[in-house]
Specification:
By secondary structure, the chain is of the alpha+beta class. It has six helices and four strands. Bound molecules: flavin mononucleotide.
């Protein structure tokens, strides 16, 4: 698929089928992700691929996290939280390495990891997969970071939910760049 076609046609796909995604395709997504630019070549991205019962375990940690954040959460709220990771057969959690040498800026590592996610989303689209980049309070929760193997001060910048789209949505219509651009000569 042409790169412009992928950029223009990609959109967030929240409803996907429960069918598993072959590992080979998931690896293609990760390979696309790591083609992103990254300053000082630190490759600051970290990926955790959750499938099958790992998603249920994540759901349990998300319930624990919601209970600690919101004491008044009802049983219904907790059940909704528990089911969130089951919305797609594959979730790729993306976190960012903390810089270990002074010349590396954390914000640049976050920028590079975000570029990796966009590559991943474009690759998913071109492979006929549906994907959505999600965050929410769970991404900042130390218990969830710990479950995923990350330190409390590491940024988890996204949970990319991936699967085969339930439906083929209409092409997205997006605002122009014009009101966001200043030309200087
Ligand atoms: C950093 C980031 C976090 C996001 N978090 C969520 C989220 O938690 N839930 C959600 O439904 N979409 C989330 N999105 C997806 C955006 O809502 C989506 O990209 C936006 O609505 C534009 O739609 P499009 O991707 O189809 O162009 C997130 C996107 C980004 C870049």
């Amino acid at each position: 698929m042409d790169v412009f076609e992928a950029i223009y046609q990609r959109q967030s796909v929240s409803k996907v089928k429960p069918a598993a995604v072959p590992r080979e395709l998931i690896e293609q997504l990760l390979n696309a992700a790591v083609q992103a630019p990254n300053h000082h070549r630190v490759r600051p991205w970290r990926f955790v691929v959750l499938q099958n019962s790992a998603r249920e375990k994540l759901g349990e940690v998300m319930v624990y996290s919601l209970q600690s954040r919101k004491a008044e959460a009802t049983a219904d709220d907790l059940q909704k939280e528990r089911l969130k990771p089951l919305r797609a057969p594959v979730i790729i959690a993306v976190a960012v390495d903390k810089p270990v040498i002074p010349k590396v800026q954390e914000s640049e590592n976050v920028a590079a990891a975000a570029a990796a996610i966009q590559n991943l989303l474009l690759a998913a689209h071109s492979l006929g997969l549906g994907a959505i980049w999600r965050t929410g309070p769970a991404a900042a929760d130390p218990a969830i970071k710990s479950f995923l193997g990350f330190a409390p001060d590491q940024h988890v910048i996204g949970f990319v939910y991936v699967g085969y789209p339930e439906t083929q949505p209409a092409p997205p219509k997006r605002p122009s760049f014009e009101d966001r651009t200043l030309w200087l000569d």
